[in-house]
Specification:
The protein is mainly β. It contains 2 helices and 25 strands. Strands 5, 6, 7, 8, 9, 10, 11, 18, 19, 22, 23 and 25 form a 12-stranded antiparallel beta sheet that branches.
Length: about 400
């Protein structure tokens, strides 16, 4: 009888509070399309030849762990944690204003104003994307991006939400969660269970080296995460504590004719056909101590955030505008069929020079690789926002 080790498997993760130490917590199942936890081992070889003419054994001098997991992007807690770890954020920040009756909608300057609600103390900040609901006018509901802010006034990008005049009185809710890139080291413990034979491949201290999110023109939105970890083991009992948390039942996110929303410098992009590939990467520096076979900590090095965009423009004029910009702010929004949203943003990037067709009647298509740079106004390079379905 042959035991199938390839498909009778379950991948599980749990967030660590101390790097390299599995907490006394339940593991959460994570639906993947491929990947595993593996050891990385460095050997010192004894090159002395014995009486039989053979070299002697190798000796392990250092070992760590690695993993690469592939998955379909879905709205779930583990995906939120992966985004948080990849950006080096300490936690998600929540904007939560519920059933406020003092918020008015102003069409003249496309702003929300309030007599008593303090927008800043409710974690709103310039560049954050929020979800506005509760007003009786449909034009005043939906995702919006803040372009200017005081305690009692939030100016919004009209490309996102073009407001209609409405006095205060309706119960308005403003919500959303966001993270920006930081320098916090976050890690997971992971377990790959071979369910038919009750064997476990485990790893601790799994720290993200890179995260890729690929949004095709049509199809499933996919991801791949590459980890560096402290230690790998093959064991016969789970490393989790208590009952496992079931995998999310939210459906994978899809893209149809491009993404849900795509903005360039807070303006409609004029792009008819979009494929996007986001990458967040950083150098990791393991701390090696004398007498220790595994790393004892990990430090962060240089971070890079890039976007590779395949763009089909509707007109040469829009193409010319796009390629003429010296600095770009880019936002991509996508969702699942239950209206759970993610919004991925780069605050400050440059577009390499691109050639344009000779004829104004030709379709304008470019492939551009854009790298994020520090935006000093927001002290960040990029941002991810999430919005759970109402």
């Amino acid at each position: 009888m042959t035991i199938n080790l390839g498909f009778e498997r379950e991948i599980k993760l749990v967030e660590e509070s101390t790097w390299g130490s599995t907490p006394a917590s339940a593991l959460e199942k994570f639906k993947v399309t491929g990947g595993s936890f593996e050891p990385e081992i460095e050997f010192a070889q004894d090159d002395e030849i014995n009486s039989h003419g053979r070299k002697k054994d190798q000796q392990i001098v250092f070992q760590s762990a690695k993993s690469n997991l592939n998955f379909n992007v879905r709205f779930c807690e583990l995906m939120h944690d992966i985004f948080k770890h990849a950006l080096g954020a300490s936690a998600w920040t929540s904007v939560s204003i519920s059933a406020a009756t003092d918020i008015a909608f102003n069409a003249t300057d496309n702003a929300l104003s309030s007599t008593s609600t303090n927008f800043i103390s409710n974690n709103m900040t310039i560049g954050v994307i929020i979800n506005v609901t509760g007003d009786q006018l449909a034009a005043n509901q939906g995702l919006a991006k803040i372009t200017a802010l005081t305690a009692n006034k939030a100016t919004l990008s009209s490309a996102w939400l073009d407001l209609s005049v409405e006095p205060a009185g309706d119960e308005v809710t403003i919500a959303g969660d966001y993270i920006r890139d930081g320098s916090t080291v976050k890690s997971f413990s992971g377990e790959d269970e071979y369910t038919k034979i009750t064997q476990f491949s485990t790893a601790t201290g799994l720290t993200i080296r890179s995260l890729d999110i690929n949004i095709p023109n049509k199809g499933k939105i996919t991801g791949a995460v590459d980890f560096y970890g402290k230690a790998h083991s093959l064991v016969q009992a789970t490393i989790g504590t208590g009952s496992e948390t079931a995998a999310s039942t939210n459906k994978p996110m899809l893209s149809g004719a491009g993404v849900e929303k795509f903005f360039i410098n807070n303006a409609a992009s004029g792009v008819a056909d979009i494929s996007l590939a986001f990458n967040w990467a950083r150098e990791l520096h393991p701390v090696e101590e004398v007498g220790e076979e595994n790393p004892t900590a990990v430090g962060l090095g240089k971070r890079t955030h890039t976007l590779v965009a395949e763009l089909l423009f509707e007109s040469e004029a829009i193409h010319d505008y796009f390629t003429a910009q010296t600095a770009l702010e880019v936002d991509a929004v996508f969702k699942d069929e239950d209206d759970n949203y993610y919004a991925l943003s780069i605050f400050n990037t440059l577009l390499p020079a691109a050639s344009i067709p000779d004829s104004a009647n030709e379709i304008c298509r470019i492939s551009a690789t854009m790298e994020a740079f520090d935006d000093t106004d927001r002290n960040a390079m990029c941002q991810i926002c999430k919005f759970a379905a109402a």
